[in-house]
Specification:
The chain is of the alpha/beta class. The protein has 13 helices and six strands. It has a six-stranded parallel sheet with strand order 3-2-1-4-5-6, sandwiched between helices. It comes from Tardiphaga robiniae.
Length: 351
């Protein structure tokens, strides 16, 4: 970079939560009309939400799922059991309201937005589709960088702006999801470099790979890793992708910048959280980890981020399905903090 050029991407100003307020909020939770500690991890969640919104109060009525969709050039090497055409087919299914993400969102009264950040096909104009396309899928990262540094910065900024826009329009909770055939391969590379962790430990079956497919996936990912020794977060993103991982990372930073909780889904969303937190460590305070995915490698990310997920249901779908299932817990924790009487008031007959 020359002395006069601007960096491609400036980390946004994100304030960590104030550790000084923790004891006060914990005392409020302990003083509620219940034995201290009797709500277990919901109390920890309420503390996190209270700290995020301080000096305001946590709210959970308006939750929005952002599903970032993008394609992966690595799919040409056979890393997935499925072709890239499934990405666009699933995007159309979200728009029709017929995917699992829609069912879980409807069951829990959560809005869904679908974002084309890099699907390798032209998509029709649709009222529920946000067009944020950076490029038509990534390049094949086994042979060349998945995207340019400018495109990586652009995808991050787009995700950031979308989350900020949703919060300015009234969202209290951002939940994250993704659709992108091949994205467990990119996520494995991102986690390998940013956790960091041995490459092989980060590779799992994704949407379902047989033994031959796993051998292909491992060989391809190993070839991609050998092509670049990048370890800086933005370089890792540009080298290995993907666009939806960048969009989710940007959205995490957007939610954190507005002091709103952001619910992280499974392996791929967690790879995005790892990226966001390596870019802006204070973003960690705003992340709620929804569930422990069955995908190999997820535990590595959770451990690297010192995260204890709320649920452990053996899910390995993505789309934000685990994040959607965690929204009622986040809402309940917020309500507990704002609505439950103190034991003192109960015993004094004030209720
Ligand atoms: C029909 C279908 C729906 C999905 N919804 C999410 N994924 C999940 O699988 C993909 C990642 O797995 P891999 O890296 O092995 O391709 C992502 O799109 C993820 O969201 C799906 C996968 C399929 C096949
Ligand atoms: O944990 C996930 O998000 C996941 C795992 C496998 C396939 N798709 C998504």
């Amino acid at each position: 970079m020359s002395a006069h050029s601007q960096p491609l991407w400036q980390p946004p100003a994100i304030a960590p939560v104030d550790p000084q307020i923790a004891a006060g909020i914990r005392a409020v939770i302990d003083g509620k009309a219940k034995p201290p500690g009797s709500l277990g991890r919901i109390e920890d969640l309420a503390l996190q939400l209270g700290m995020i919104r301080h000096p305001g109060e946590p709210r959970g009525d308006n939750a929005v799922l952002l599903v970032f969709a993008g394609d992966h050039g690595l799919v040409a090497e056979g890393v997935s059991q499925y072709p890239s055409a499934v990405t666009v087919a699933m995007v159309m299914t979200y728009l029709a309201g017929r995917a699992t993400a829609n069912a879980f969102a409807t069951a829990n009264d959560i809005d869904v937005r679908v974002i084309d950040i890099g699907v390798a096909a032209e998509l029709p104009v649709h009222p529920k589709l946000i067009d944020a396309k950076v490029r038509m899928g990534t390049a094949n990262a086994a042979r060349e960088p998945a995207m340019t540094a400018e495109q990586a910065a652009d995808a991050l900024s787009r995700g950031y702006r979308i989350a900020v826009g949703e919060i300015k329009a009234g969202a209290d909770i951002i939940a994250l999801g993704e659709m992108g055939i091949g994205n467990t391969a990119s996520s494995a590379l991102v986690v390998h470099r940013l956790a960091p962790a041995p490459l092989d430990d980060c590779i799992g079956v994704g949407a379902g790979q047989d033994d031959a497919g796993m051998a292909r996936k491992r060989a391809t990912i190993t070839k991609a890793a050998a092509r670049s020794d990048a370890t800086a977060p933005l370089d890792v993103l540009a080298e290995f992708g993907g666009l939806e991982i960048a969009g989710m990372a940007g959205a995490i930073l957007g939610a954190a910048s507005q002091r709103r909780p952001v619910i992280i889904d499974g392996f791929i969303s967690s790879a995005a959280a790892l990226l966001a937190i390596r870019l802006c460590p204070a973003a960690r305070d705003y992340c709620v980890f929804a569930h422990r995915s069955a995908e190999r490698g997820h535990d590595i990310v959770l451990h690297a981020l010192d995260a204890k997920p709320l649920l452990d249901l053996g899910l390995r779908l993505g789309e934000g399905t685990g994040a959607l299932l965690a929204v009622p817990l986040v809402r309940a924790a917020a309500r507990m903090l704002t609505d439950v009487a103190s034991l003192d008031d109960v015993l004094a007959g004030k209720i």
